């Protein structure tokens, strides 16, 4: 069986867990903190980042995008990458945007309000939170709103890596108590509701919330 190294509340580990759940792929989970000095972990994640991964043949590598690209090759059921070349490129672009610009903003709020206080004993930096809530996150949500149609999914007519990547950020906002205002972002608010209602997403959120509760 393959192995995921990381912690479930990490947004990048979350993305990989969701991809496995969507494809109904089982795995062993090895609880590993970011920057862990564990020798085996460091061999497959020299940057010290989670998630890291080991295949059932014992081959190790890291990075959520790499891991999901790998599992797509292993399991073609419930494909996460569109067949159409332009859709494929757009899906990769959404993943890139979500992992960088979105994560810098939604992840920062999530860290300020949840991860920092619960796991590191940090105090909330209110000035930073205000800037994130009033300026930085709305600018990102404006961009996503402009890209959404009335469809269920960001691209085409099925869930893709684009939805899992953007959705991992929507879970950051849920945990961080940032409500998506349906007056300003009507399409995104509806998309968010649909994403959060997916069974695999509800299960992931429950796993993360029970970790928050055990840290309190
Ligand atoms: N590009 C990487 C980013 C992973 C990442 O930044 N993970 C964070 C935890 S959410 C981490 O391990 N940070 C520790 C560090 O940067 O040293 C991916 O997609 O997996």
What does this structure look like?
A 4-stranded mixed beta sheet has the order 2-1-3-4. The longest helix has 36 residues. With 216 residues, it is of the alpha+beta class. 60% of the residues lie in helices and 6% in strands. Helix 1 runs parallel beside helix 3 and helix 4 runs antiparallel to helix 5. It starts with a strand and ends with a helix. The protein has 8 helices and 4 strands, in the order βαβαββαααααα. The chain folds into 2 domains: 72 residues, Glutaredoxin (3-Layer(aba) Sandwich); 131 residues, Glutathione S-transferase Yfyf (Class Pi), Chain A, domain 2 (Up-down Bundle), CATH 1.20.1050.10. Glutathione (GSH) binds next to helix 1 and helix 3.
Summarize the structure.
The chain has helices spanning 11-22, 39-44, 64-74, 85-120, 126-147, 161-175, 186-196, 199-215, and strands at residues 3-6, 28-31, 52-54, 60-62. It is an alpha+beta fold.
Task: Summarize this structure as a short list of keywords or feature phrases.
216 residues; alpha+beta; Glutaredoxin; Glutathione S-transferase Yfyf (Class Pi), Chain A, domain 2; 2 domains; 8 helices; 60% helix; 6% strand; binds glutathione
Can you summarize the main beta sheet?
4 strands, mixed
Mean pLDDT: 96
Total E-strand runs: 4
Helix/strand/pairing class, anyone? alpha+beta
- The CATH topology assignment of the largest domain is Glutathione S-transferase Yfyf (Class Pi), Chain A, domain 2
CATH architecture of the largest domain: Up-down Bundle
Q: Please tally the helical runs, counting DSSP H or I stretches of 4 or more residues.
A: 8
Pattern of helices and strands: EHEHEEHHHHHH
Bound small molecules, deduplicated = glutathione
